[in-house]
Amino acid sequence: MKLLIFCDPGIDDAMALIYALLHPEIDVLGLVCSYGNVDKFTAAHNAAHILHLAGRMDIPIFNGAEMPVTGELATYYPEIHGDGGIGPIKVTKGDYQFRIRNLGEVFDLIETNDDLVIADLGRSTTLATCFLLNREAMGLVKELHIMGGAFMVPGNVTPVAEANFYGDPTSANLLLAHGKKVILTPLNVTQKAIITNDYAKALQYYTENKFKDMYLPIIKYYADAYTKLVPGMDGAPFHDLLTIYSAVHPKRMQYLAKKVHVVVEGKTRGKSFADFRHMDSDQESKHHIALGFDYDHFLQEVFQVLTRPI
Ligand code: RIB
Ligand code: CA
Fold it and tell me: Whose CA is nearest to atom 1 of ligand 1?
């Protein structure tokens, strides 16, 4: 699978990137880094750190948005991801030689790669901007896999909204309106994609690649943050990792086709909703909401991939 990833690393983004880079069936063509968990430059440097460890500095990093379309300044989440975005790991600007490419250059990738799949792991602003800039090229993209939304379950930034859709609901609606096929991994499933500290210890023990010393500290950092939010929780949900997993393992997921909308303002801003009553028109919906997945397979397969020698 040829994959272009929009991201804001972020600990769960970082694990998703590592999984994609190590996966034998995924060919990562580029990373687009935007505001979200951290500012966009920090996100790009964190992405470069991961590419460096994977020995894949040949993969281009593209410039993403630094705020939502409302023009509000972005809110970051150091209490969950750490000041630098990947927990205790500090990436200093200047550590790596790389050029952040203009967003417009991403269309060369899209136009020259058939069956390209996009995963959007952060706020929807940059991907929506791609539709604003070149809708024709975006029509060539086979599938959009989006981490976002929460359907009839609690949100994670407000009682009803998930962080990515809350951050820029207008852009999220644009993706839903214009994406050819839009596959959502909302909190309904990502909150259940939990990785525990014991799993992280086993990862560190069995890993034979350059990420060996990274897994345990970042997973522990993220899990400690979640334990403060949800006392008693063992580990933490790896939202973005599940999104990439779902793109390669659609048969391990349960989807419901429903037309989805996101509330753009007011107290329920960012809330995603769909009509869950039976509708004959659902069959034609191009939106697919993940509502279940094979957790045991997720744990096993992710472990296999993350421990692979490079
Ligand atoms: O709500 C979870 C999402 O918000 C994840 O993508 C996480 O990385 C943050 O961006
Ligand atoms: Ca993210």
Answer: 163
Name residues contacting ligand 1 (CB within 6 A).
8, 10, 12-13, 36-37, 121-122, 147, 156, 162-164, 239-240
Q: How far is the CA of 93 from the centre of ligand 2 (A)?
A: 21
Atom of ligand 1 nearest to the CA of 187: 1
On whether the pTM is more than 0.85, the answer is: yes
Q: Is 116 helix (H, G, I), strand (E, B) or coil?
A: coil
pLDDT in tens, 48-82: 999 999 999 999 999 999 999 999 999 999 999 99
Residue 17 tokens read as: 């990137």
Predicted pLDDT of residue 289: 98
- Give pLDDT, residue 279: 83
Nearest C-alpha to atom 10 of ligand 1 is from which residue? 122
CATH number of 151's domain: 3.90.245.10
Alpha carbons 130 and 117: distance in angstroms, whole number:
14
| Gap from CA of 56 to ligand 1 centroid (Å) | 24
- What percentage of the chain carries pLDDT values higher than 70? 100
User: Structural domain of residue 227, as residue ranges?
Assistant: 2-307
Length of the chain: 310
pLDDT digits (tens, 9 = 90+) for 241-269: 999 999 999 999 999 999 999 999 999 99
* Number of domains comprising the chain: 1
Q: Are 177 and 133 in contact (CB under 8 A)?
A: no
R_g (Cα) of the chain, nearest Å? 18
Distance CA 150, CA 163 (A): 10
Distance 240 CA to ligand 2 centre (A): 6
Beta bridge partners of 145: 119, 183
Q: How far is the CA of 279 from the centre of ligand 1 (A)?
A: 30
